[in-house]
Write the structure tokens for this entry.
Amino acid sequence: MAITIRLAGKGDQVRWDDFVHAQEGMGPYHLFGWKTAVEKAYHHTSHYLIAEDEKGRIQGVLPLILIKPPLLRGCMVSLPFCDYGGALAVDRATEALLIRKAVDLARSHRANLEIRCKSASVSFLTLPRFDVTSHKSRMVLPLSKNSETLFRMFKSKLRSQIRRPQKEGMLFRMGSRELLDDFYRVFSRNMRELGSPVHAKDWLCSVVDSFDGKAHVGMVYSGRVPVAGGVILSCNDTVTVPWASSLSQYNRLSPNMLLYWGFLQYASDNGFKRFDFGRSTPGEGTYRFKEQWGAEPSPLYWYSVNTNGTNPARRYIERTWAFIPQSFTDRIGPLLRRYIRL
């Protein structure tokens, strides 16, 4: 069967998403909405590859975004700002063709190439010069048929931790774009404390808009004060958390427990089968936090070609960023963050 590979256009969105939804290894980031959000908010160039047979039927896709900082070597990523992307194909031969095309495309742009996968792929073994890192894992929790059953399955200590912020008068609220201002206040402050430039609010707005009713924002309030929040994306049978943050001064009251319980209630009561907490490094605090809910690790495999390694300035920036005034980091952070692929 002859396969041709071409770049996707706007008219391919419906066919692209229909194909993605039918693939076992898919996730929300594979959908056209991620492309739309990246282009709208950060103006990066996308190269979404479609593999078709002689009858024009889609046999595979591979989403790619070119991240090109001024005056520096670019990197073509599948996909940036999230845990994974990678090729979805009906067979390994088509997957390999898409990856080879991605290598050629990156070379033509004099860029590095990074393909992030949810699982190990044998297709990369047939291609030279790919390095792989797998030190981070997605944390995934199988869900019960409803939240009451799920709550009873938790250990008593975990149930007590969920009840604590409720006893302190904290409330969970689920919404959408109308809660983004509150979330961004928490998110930007938390990112500064972690030593990381924050995403632009326009980026979060673009994601929520591009995913329409499949994106939600959850917030925890102490009185009228937003103290914790997150964004979730629902896709097929899974709810995924790409971003969540809380204010450190409220940690003793465990608002994060109420936040994630609110998300889990929504996911379980609306018929979803899995909850993806997002990536963590085994042994670190976020990993242990997710593990206590019963989430199981699923290693991520990030394949790369011709990468230059970690920027030596990164650790210095992380150490000093938290001491820079919030007003400055809020202005400068989004300008830098658009070029940080993580």
About this structure: Residues 138-298 form a domain with the Aminopeptidase fold (CATH 3.40.630.30). The CA atoms of residues 134 and 301 lie 5 Å apart.
